[in-house]
Amino acid sequence: MRNYRLLLVDDDPFILTGIGKDLENEGYEVVTAQSGEKAVALVEEQPFDLVITDLVMGGIDGIEVLRAAKTGTGETMVIILTGYGDMGSAIEALRLDADDYLLKPCEPEEMKFRVARCLEQIEMARKIRVYEKMLPICCVCKKIRDDSGKAPGSGDWISIEKYVWERAGVAPTSTYCPVCVQEARKELDNL
What we know:
Blueprint: E1 5-9, H1 13-25, E2 29-33, H2 36-45, E3 50-54, H3 62-70, E4 77-82, H4 87-95, E5 100-103, H5 108-133, E6 144-146, E7 156-158, H6 160-168, H7 178-189
Parallel strand pairs: 1-2, 1-3, 3-4, 4-5
Antiparallel strand pairs: 6-7
Helix pairs in contact: 2-3
């Protein structure tokens, strides 16, 4: 299992201890913050995979923690945890890209399930980003599939030269790399 870093934010030390221990027992690295100010400082200085934050706190509230967490790498997921759940706060949190919303008190199993679900979504997003950055090249003819402006996997197969010219505006020329030069010289010497 990957070592996930979680930030748990609540002004109630009992919540921090209880939920924090449960999540640590699941194998997560848990950092705690007893205020929104401390949480914002932490997300600005280090990356977290998931932030679980209380909504109502003195000073900086959970909405501000959510905003700070979402302005970082864009990968951080946020669960809002609150004892003051109402439809308006839930809608506001979700409108600001909260990834989940839980009411206190919540069962430990429910918290573990929601955390695991958020982390699965992170992994899926990471895999998609990797696949989006891959450039499919035929292992036989060396043509490239150009998916630009098309659904992934449906692009036309074109030569490397054409791809470089169309995408980078660079006219490729044929030449030999140093390794191929040595191989060609060996072949000529053997003739």
